[in-house]
Amino acid sequence: MTHILTPEGKRQLEEKLDFYKKVKRVEVSKKIGVAREFGDLSENSEYDAAKDEQAQIESEIREMEDILLNCQIVDDKNTSKDVVSIGSTVRLYDEEFDEELEYRILGSTESNPSQGIISNISPVGSALLGHKKGEEIKVKTGGDIIVYKILDIK
Fold it and tell me: Could you tell me the pTM of the whole model?
């Protein structure tokens, strides 16, 4: 699976991976060592918790490495202002609620809907791709259909 990242998103993920490898691994290794000193490992909840944390950290490291190995970098500086694409920031008008919304469309790895960053594979993100300023799009979410008008593309 290809993961879409901006240059900034890739840099942040590389920093996070480095932190996990150099800091988190060492911390959990120390926790395991301390927990071993408590005695019988078969009834040692601290040891079990530390081993579970170690497994979680290693899983996250593998996931980050996989994303970085299989990523496509999208530089939003080269993003078209005429057509909605990955990297675009789109200002929309929601006719039903008479309000304007603004979304930036990125890959799922960087999406954060609470900050207005939606994934290119989300219902709204995928419906917007390829459309132009002034067009109306219909987005099916659950049982509802929402109509948006594209006001601007940045």
Answer: 0.79
Distance CA 68, CA 10 (A): 7
Contact 145, 125 (CB under 8 A): no
Mean pLDDT of the chain: 92
**With respect to CATH, is domain 76-153 assigned 2.40.30.10?**
no
| Structure tokens given for 73 | 């970098």
- pLDDT tens digits, residue range 34-83? 888 877 777 778 888 999 999 999 999 999 999 999 999 987 676 778 99
117-119/99-106 β-pairing: parallel
Specify the CATH class of 3-73 in words.
mainly alpha
Asked if residue 131 lies in contact with residue 150, where contact means CB atoms within 8 angstroms, the answer is yes
Show me where the domains of the chain are located: 3-73, 76-153
Which residues are bridge partners to 144 per DSSP? 141
